[in-house]
Design a protein that fits this description.
Elements: E1 2-6, E2 12-17, H1 23-41, E3 47-49, E4 55-58, H2 61-66, H3 70-73, H4 78-82, H5 84-99
Antiparallel strand pairs: 1-2, 3-4
Length: about 110
């Protein structure tokens, strides 16, 4: 980055140059892409759901099971994706357990 350097008379007397080593950021981005690949190619459905039961992220397998495009699942309430009956009869209870700190195995 270059920024003007002003002297006491407020005239530009030079330039201040600064650089940043982004190699750590690039390495982290590569690792993140590797994890994304693992998640997206996993045969299991995977989703990140917040405490309001809103999908924050889903892997590529998830929308196939509910016949909704990926774009329609993210940002939606769980009951709108899997159906109100399945949400109320099984998913909500298991989500509530997980949201309270318990690890839950859930099968559809």
């Amino acid at each position: 980055m270059f920024s003007p350097y002003r002297g006491e008379d407020n005239l530009i007397d030079g330039v201040v140059a600064s650089t940043r080593d982004i190699s750590e950021n690039k390495q982290a981005e590569e690792v993140l892409q590797q994890y994304k690949h693992i998640v997206d190619t996993n045969a299991d459905m995977m989703a990140l759901i917040d405490s309001n039961y809103i999908y924050k992220a889903v892997n590529k397998k998830y929308p196939d099971a509910f016949e909704k495009p990926l774009e329609q699942a993210v940002g939606c309430h769980v009951k709108d994706v899997m159906g109100e009956k399945m949400f109320l009869e099984s998913a909500k209870e298991n989500l509530d357990k997980a949201l309270s700190g318990e690890t839950v195995n859930f099968q559809i």
